[in-house]
Sequence to fold (113 residues):
Amino acid sequence: TILPWGKVRHAVVVTDMRIFYVRHRRPFLPLSFLGTDLRIDVFRHDHDVIYGNMDRTNLNFMNRCIHQRILFEQFLPGQVHMQTKFGALQINRQHGDAVDVYRLLMKLSRNTS
Fold:
């Protein structure tokens, strides 16, 4: 896709102590003097998630036709919330299943038994 601001790439890295979100945006080729954009966000959790919540949303008619009927993809997007002693974090999963993110974040909770 040719976009006026170039292609955006996202990556999320989960470690035992932190969650890193990296966003890299390439410049649009004819206007390469605009430069690249790099953003890194870090959230500290120390493997101690206190609370987790997930809200799933249904796909609209057009996305359901494209993803489920043409591409045979089965997923429900949504939002995942987590809370630690350092603060709260909301993750929006727009393309993909929110359950996968929820299961990953709940593995970061300490064993309470």
Notes: Strands lie at 8-14, 18-25, 37-44, 51-56, 78-84, 87-93. The first strand starts at residue 8 and ends at 14.
